[in-house]
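Intended use. Records like the one below are meant for learning the mapping from a protein sequence to its folded structure. Do not use them to infer anything beyond what is encoded.
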Amino acid sequence: MNTTYIDFVEIGDYEDFYTQLKEKVKLPEHFGDNLDALSDVISGELEMPLHIEFVNMSVDQLELFEDLLTTLEDAEEEVEDFTFNYYLEQYEDEEEEIDEQ
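Structure written out for the chain above:
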């Protein structure tokens, strides 16, 4: 399975997201930087199987990118061989506390 990792440490807005997505996923030239276009390419133009993982998302980014997460979760339900996950960033203090227990 082809897995694409999108690191949200370097993403502050949708423009940053689409820039990183274009670097990592072979999108058609006519791709428009919007959620409808993303849904369309996933459902018909990208090579499957494909797994996308968002890593290092902050809690603030969960709210900012809520529509993006919903779009990809919907695509996961509708498109065979497409899967999606996201993971929140880890803080060193939390890791230290876990290690101490």
